[in-house]
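Rotation project, supervised by the postdoc (A.L.). Task for the rotation student: set up a whole-complex structure prediction and record inputs and outputs verbatim in this book. Inputs entered:
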Amino acid sequence: MIKRSLKTKFTVAVLGTTVIALFVSSGAMVIFNLQSYRQSVAEALNVQAALLARAITPALQFQDPDSAQSYLELLELQPEVAEAAIYNEKGQMFAHYHLKSENKAPQDMVLEEDGIELEGNTLSIHKQVLFDSEIIGIVYVRMYYNFLAKMAGNIAIAGVSILFAVLVAIALSLHFNSSVIGPILSLTGLARQMTRTRDYSLRAEKKSDDEMGYLVDTFNDMLDEVASGRSSLERSNEELKIEVQERREAEQALRESENEVLRLNAELEQRVRDRTLQLELANKELESFSYSVSHDLRSPLRAIDGFSQALLEDYSDQLDETGRDYLGRVRAAAQKMGCLIDDMLKLSRVSRAEMNLQTVDLSSMAESLWEELRQNDNREAEIRIAEGLTAVCDPHLMRIALTNLFSNAWKYTSKTAGTRIEFGMQSEGSETAFFVRDNGAGFDMKYADKLFGAFQRMHTTSEFPGTGIGLATVKRVISRHGGRVWAEAYLNRGATFYFTIGSKLNFSSDETEAAA
Amino acid sequence: MNTRPILLAEDNPDDQQLALRAFKKSNLSNEIILAKDGVEAIEYLFGTGPYAGKEPPPLPAVALLDIKMPRMDGLEVLAAIREHERTKFLPVVILTSSKEEQDIVKGYTLGVNSYVRKPVDFNEFLKAIQNLGLYWLILNEAPTQP
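Outputs recorded:
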């Protein structure tokens, strides 16, 4: 549709322009030709009339019609002259000539101004013959004036040239169709094909170096850009597709791992619940165990001790020294077991007690503990407590731990002259540790691993009394605070017990010495 | 000196014997009413069971209650005593083996007048009984019979 339209338009435009131009120019030419034909005939008439007037002036002056006639006869040599006549000053025929084919009756002439007249297919002129500004006669000449034939000839020429020009125009438009419209149409076809097939590798063929060639180049360049843009678009589309796929997979994986995490969490929570339940049960069991230990284990001991005492009191006369000694041992053993049970209960209470964390001034706690200890046994000793020791801990439990450490130090220096005991703080690698140092009995580091076990002792009861529960209690307290406890000692050269309490932030150091 | 009896609720015969011996050694002449568990103690105090239908027995000067007893424990007896109009001011001492914090707290919550732990060492026990007698029978002024 576009194809036909463009071609037709082009052809119509070329032909129309050509035909209109030819018609206009041919018409103008014909009109000009006819005009100039009339002019040339008129001039020839004028010249003929002027020549005749000059030539026949004497004959008119001398009233000699014969000479005028003979002169007129000479006009035979000019076949275009159809008729000629001479009139006298009165307008009466003087001489007359006409072609043999013509047969026109002569007639008188009116003396009027000079003029040219059209008569049929002839043009006639009448001209006054003057002599000394006086009219002496009139010349009349009539010449053939073949206007229609001339016009027909002209039109025929114009028609032929128009025909020729139209043919040339058709040929030219056909040529242009192939050289100008053709490339445009092929470009259009290419564009249409491209739109349909989306094949951007197609290229227009360049056939000329003119604007059309430039258009084809530009079109191809544009196609290059479109193709490269499209291929990069396709590439990035592809990449995007891959990315989307990857993301989808990652999301899937994430969802799966989230589900896994949720599942694990749920499992963990269930396990925590189970464990908590187990722990609560165990705790409850421990509670009821220590409750019944506290109630039931002690009453047989009371009976053993009480009735041994009764025996000693009421029946001592029936017993010898050995018997009384045995009963004394029975009582001592019962009482010792009572102490053991009490210590065990204390240890279990330390494990069960609820923690109540707060910032505690360890220095002043140590001061008051030492005061209590020395009230019972005020022997000579140098006690040094660093100032400004604080920790975030449970004050009740910490008091129990410090009491045990201090009373141990006090106990194991009881046989040392010049007792020195120190409570302070020092850096232990990345942590800060509190320490209790004494110069007492110490112990062999070989047995250090047994130190903090319940009922483990480094010394016999006869050397130093005790049940072996103190350091186990200290360890429990420190463990419950997230810290650790350890010892350094040399036999007979004293011992140092270190402990840490959780985070380093717990500590502040202002270690100046205070002698007690 | 208060001459009213002393109520001793104690299920363990050894402990009963030792307690009686301690009372004797402390020269306390008051009558000792022995209850072998909480139910017997309640029956005596409220005049029920074997005491039903008669004039209710006189209230003791002090009631010494063990905690762990069959049928009805000492803390339950204490609660009943404090609930009952007739016995609500009765001096009650818990005399027991344990010094478990929970027992002590519960005892004081229920309105016990004193909480004493029986030591293993008989001599210590004897001292405790002597102190109790001195305090509750001689020093302490109880309200007149409600």
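Student's summary: Chain A has a mean pLDDT of 83.
Supervisor addendum: Chain A touches chain B through 23 residues (CB under 8 Å).
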